[in-house]
Amino acid sequence: MANMAFRRLGKAAYFVAFVLVATSALDYATTIWPLRPADVSWRYGAVGILSGFLLTPLLGVLVALVIATVLDHPGTLKVLAILSGITGIVGLLLLLGFALDAIQMYQAGAPDARPAAKASSLRASIKLLAGFTAFVWLGVAGFRRRVRVGV
Q: Given phi > 0 = left and psi -120 to 50 = alpha, else beta, which region is 150?
């Protein structure tokens, strides 16, 4: 009986996880549109804005990983673990680019605006580092769980 209840809840939870990831990704994409990756100020702003959008998809992936683990869905667990790991690694590399862009933005900005810019860059960097590290950690944990059950 409990197993059937988990399975029914699992479908709804997978949908909630999808909604958390998809709506946040859509909100972020429409916020940074139109894309101008060659523009330093656009890149700096886009990555800085990403720090505010990262928590919701991270929560969605966590929900999906928990459901995949509880319901023993090894294929879903594998896909989620791989995507989480890739997202985290790419994001950490993106953080390095953000640091370089921040240096360029400081040099181009007015001296009296630099303390506030440094503070906001530091805040965004901490959030990005924590979020992307969590994605890597979820990827590793999901893969280890998959390996442990022998799949």
A: left
Do residues 59 and 138 touch, judged by C-beta distance below 8 A? no
pLDDT for the residue numbered 8: 84
CA distances to 25, 43, 67, 105 from 16, rounded to whole Å, are: 14, 30, 11, 38
Q: At what angle do helices 55-70 and 2-32 cross, to 10 degrees?
A: 160
For the cut 90, the answer to whether the pLDDT of residue 2 exceeds it is no
Burial 120-130 (b: 16+ CB within 10 A, else e): ebeebbebbee
Phi, psi of 85 (to 5 degrees): -60, -45
| 71 exposure class (CB count in 10 Å sphere: 0-12, 13-18, 19+) | middle
CA distance 106 to 70: 48
- pLDDT (tens digit per residue) in 5-60: 778 899 999 999 999 999 999 999 999 999 999 999 999 999 999 999 999 999 99
Nearest to 47 by CA among 110, 127, 133: 127
